[in-house]
TrEMBL record:
Protein source organism: Fusarium poae
Low complexity bias (residue ranges): 73-84
Keywords of this entry: Coiled coil
Coiled coil: 88-161
Ranges of Basic and acidic residues composition bias in the record: 32-49, 63-72
Top-rank taxon: Eukaryota
Protein name: CCHC-type domain-containing protein
Disordered: region residues: 1-85
């Protein structure tokens, strides 16, 4: 009879079950699975300990009952096997639940990766859009720079035209703040710094009809080429070349300083050919009131011949010409005159100072407001916009109104006015048509 103590306890199990194939990816067990496995391990250790202790504590007198105890032990082993299978089944269930949770996590991770990919594509599209916008901004900036440059040139041209128009009155030339009396204790405000703009006016109206009409571009090219040669400066350019809006036959070349102005005038006079004229520089008039009549007019009520030089010396300036504004046939001791200066800065200076010396006495200065009057042709003496050199009518004397001679060679005794028919010269200030403001 075999030793019952050495008999092996065989635990019969149910039909073998198929263990599911573990995924290749290492799955980290959850805390719930780890707790369950730890409980199973503790239960198995406790079962083995109890079995060994029971085997050692069997009494000697109980050897006769070993078959019965063996059968009891077999029954107890069967019960322990059932508990082990239950625990193993529970572990398998937990493992299956862990796999399902892992699968859900994988699906969520896949969705997250797809969303990340879509976001990356959106970011790439946004970067491409920003790159295109950057290129458009650069192009727009270049266009705006070009337009701003053109606008600046146009404004400069307009300002030059406005400042240097040949028909400008002094009201347009030297419109400054009114001067304060000299007895004012406050400090006078400093006037703005005068900025002289020099320009050369070229008239092309005398070119023959069969000759090519010089344009502003042709004049610019000719002047620039010649000045570059004289100054040995291949990059020199005209500051501005503009057309007179009131006279399309006049072209103005704006210069930067006086030396450049002289060079341009010399080139225009010598290189532009016959038929072109370089007109005199514009003059800047100022009105002077309370002027001693004797200092300006002689015994015949005519302007003294040496008056311009005398006024220039007294006021330390260059006077081109003057004109008496008050009525000459009215014997007043003091009157008004207009003084034409060659420099705009000088005109501004006298307006700021408020005084102009004439014959040792100071007259008060103010803006000269030119009053337009009808234009007269000095060839036919008619009121028209034609110039004398443009008139195709016979020459008429401005004194006797007869054809064939000039008024400087007239021997007639009875004057006659062509515009109004009155008993005076055609150029007289007594003409109501030529000087309507004086007869209102």
């Amino acid at each position: 009879m075999a030793d019952p103590m050495g008999a092996e306890i065989v635990v019969e199990q149910d039909a073998p079950f198929s263990t599911p194939k573990r995924p290749s990816r290492v799955v980290k067990p959850t805390s719930k699975v780890r707790d369950t496995a730890r409980q199973l391990e503790d239960t198995a250790i406790e079962t083995r300990r109890n079995t060994r202790q029971t085997t050692r504590n069997v009494p000697a007198d109980g050897q006769i009952d070993r078959p019965t105890d063996a059968r009891k032990s077999n029954g107890s082993g069967s019960s322990s096997g059932s508990d082990g299978r239950a625990m193993l089944q529970k572990a398998l269930d937990l493992l299956a639940e862990s796999r399902r949770e892992t699968k859900r996590l994988q699906e969520a991770l896949k969705e997250q990766m797809e969303m990340t990919k879509e976001l990356q594509e959106a970011v790439a599209k946004q970067e491409e859009t920003m790159h295109e916008m950057g290129k458009q901004m650069v192009e727009m900036k270049e266009r705006m720079t070009e337009e701003l440059q053109r606008a600046r040139e146009q404004l400069e041209t307009i300002a030059t035209n406005a400042m240097d128009g040949p028909q400008r009155s002094y009201a347009d030339v030297a419109r400054l703040t009114p001067f304060l009396p000299h007895n004012d204790s406050r400090t006078l405000a400093a006037p703005p710094n005068p900025i002289d703009v020099f320009y050369c006016t070229i008239d092309v109206s005398r070119l023959g009809e069969d000759e090519a009409r010089l344009s502003a571009g042709t004049i610019r090219a000719t002047v620039e080429n010649q000045v570059r040669s004289e100054l040995d400066n291949p990059t020199w350019r005209c500051r501005a070349v503009t057309m007179d809006p009131k006279n399309p036959h006049r072209v103005r070349v704006t210069c930067r300083d006086e030396s450049e102005h002289e060079t341009v005038k010399r080139v225009a006079e010598t290189k532009l050919g016959q038929g072109t004229r370089v007109l005199r520089d514009d003059l800047y008039p100022i009105r002077v009131d309370n002027v001693n009549r004797i200092a300006v007019l002689d015994e015949r009520n005519e302007v003294r011949a040496e008056i311009t030089k005398m006024l220039g010396r007294e006021n330390d300036t260059e006077v081109a010409k003057i004109a008496w504004l008050s009525k000459r046939d009215v014997p007043k001791a003091y009157g008004s005159m207009v003084v034409y200066l060659k420099k705009r800065s000088e005109a501004r200076r006298f307006i700021n100072e408020g005084f102009f010396v004439a014959g040792g006495e100071s007259g008060t200065t103010k803006t000269f407001e030119r009053r337009d009057r009808p234009k007269q042709c000095y060839n036919c003496q008619q009121i028209t916009n034609r110039k004398a050199y443009q008139c195709d009518r016979p020459q008429v004397c401005g004194r006797c109104a007869q054809e064939g001679h000039h008024h400087s060679a007239c021997t007639g005794m009875i004057p006659k006015c062509i515009p109004c028919g009155g008993p005076h010269e055609s150029y007289s200030r007594n003409c109501r048509k030529l000087y309507p403001s004086q007869h209102e």
